Amino acid sequence: MKFFNHKFLMILALLVVLTGIGGCKKFLDVVPNDAPSLESAFSNRSVMEKFLRTCYSHLPDPTDPFYYPAYFTSWDEFDVRRDSRSNNSIAGLIAQGLQNSNAPYQDYWSGTGGGHPMYVALRDCNIFLENAHIPRDIDETERTRWISEVKFLKAYYHFFLLQLYGPIILVKENHPVSAKGEDFWDYREPVDSCVNYIVQLIDEALPGLPPTLPDPTTEQGRISQVIALAVKAKVLATAASPLFNGNTDYAGWKDNRGVQLISSVYDPAKWQRAATAIKEAIDAAEGNGYHLYQFNKYSGGAGTYAMSDSLVQLMTIRKAITESVDKNPGVIWSTQQQFADGKGGSTGASFNFGVLGNMLKTLFPAMYSQDQTSYVGYLTASWQMAELFYSNNGVPINEDRFFDYANRYKPRRATINDNVGAYIPTGEVTASMHFFREPRFYADLGFDRGYFELATTTIDGGATFGVYLKSRPGEMSGAPSCYAPKKIIAFETSCSKGLANTTYTASNYQFPLLRLSDLYLLYSEALNEVKGQPDGEVYQWIDKVRAAAGLNGVVQSWQIASNNPNAPATKDGMRRIIQRERLIELAFEGQRFWDVRRWKRANEFWTLQPTTWSLTATQPDQFYVPVTGTQSRVVTFRDYLYPIRQSDVRVNPNLVQTYGW
């Protein structure tokens, strides 16, 4: 796809520089005073740098759950059905099955319905690349780096569109001024062609990028070789996955040239190509000092902590997400903006709780029953997330021979002998399924009568915590919650109880876009697909992630505790184990949506009925009774890819609608 490249677009793009980045920090937070004109757009280094920031400013905001696709659009990770604001938001309407082709929601193709226009982003990248040679007062090494960054951004914006729409229009260059009529009738290109072009752009960008950011403090959010290689790995893993590799659902999807847009023939070579790219990214990351995060209680930033080994393990899991980037070697790429309360919603959001960061503020009153402060339902992690996590033996709870799965809903009182004192106050009663779970369950989820560890809720340096969630009816105003996504709330966040209410101060951090554990699990997945059957190399990479989470390796765990001990020995069994490990390890990080789609498993997860504890009972034996709702979603193959506006199809006879829409 090409766009006009004339004075109007140049001036418009420069106006974006002037007005579009005022809310950003650090690298992106420099707003020029120059008057926009064609002559001044690339007249010197300073203005060129501002245009570079414009190219960065189009990055989708992964902390805005109403407009970013990965959170509230599916109900299987966050369940917002009991909160009218969230359920009737753009994302909530998609989750209700109300996506449409007349006025699509989260329209990242044209920029309507709460989506950002990615083709405008691609146009701006092309304008930059076409004019980056003009300024003379710039060091050539710096010019090369900037060009490489924009080539990567151009690749990433194409990839973002590819994940949502499958075959897309490739914007290799902008239309010349002389273009007319049918010159704009561009085609959606086959997915394989799109992938090859995206990879080509990243490969072109790599030599000009620094291996890592020279100054992460001031350049946070910019692109390095390690980031580019990691994204390349994700692109090729996506291309090798069932959604785009041998998907017969789209066998009839052809354009008016007769070109098949998604191949219905499975190609195992795609997984080998992905495996090679993932290993290259891992080698580059490890060679530049990246490794899985490990919390050190003797250098925790706020001083020395007196935490038990169990609490240190919880901090390792939580702070792998929320630790500051200069102290977190496990985060490869994170948002440039900080993630916390007070960050405004994007795309004209009218909601008071427009971003995930605001869940910090609204969750804490649930820890103080006497406050009776209204609780915001969109904070609720789905019931299925609590069932997802392993037992303390490192296997699914329905497979664990030692876990009383049939009686998991029965109330149980915590005793000293249970050895759960780090997670549940002794003497408190909660559901049996909250006992004997893996560390990530306790690090990731807040649950009724479970501790919510914060730096301000301990008086003995973390040896004990005095505040736990109370979320039964009558203990908070509004709809009670089953579970809350504790993982993404920083330990350093301040919460205290006053005479009238609670006070809260956010702890800011950059939200992770891509972690090293993601690459480890992706490599295990790719190797499992490449090999005839799993072997030690397949197990090695998933076991690294499990070790960091305090679990034994896959083979050992399944042999000791699972009623299906041979599952890791088969390709199909190991595939499901790896996929579940990804869903657990990357929970609440905006990855589940993309993984479920590329695996073609949405019909398993997006159709689940809402479940909660009793909405009226206050006594444990009556409260811990699952209540299943009736509202569920029907999912077909068409829901895996977004539609484009029907009006766009009408004005371009070569543009075919997404298949099924």
From TrEMBL:
Transmembrane segments: none annotated. InterPro entries: SusD-like_N, SusD_RagB_dom, TPR-like_helical_dom_sf. It is found in: Cell outer membrane. Keywords: Cell outer membrane, Membrane, Signal. The keyword Cell cycle does not apply. One of its GO terms (cellular component) is cell outer membrane. Residues 330-661 form the RagB/SusD domain. Belongs to the SusD family. Its main location: membrane. This is Carbohydrate-binding protein SusD. Residues 26-235 form the SusD-like N-terminal domain.
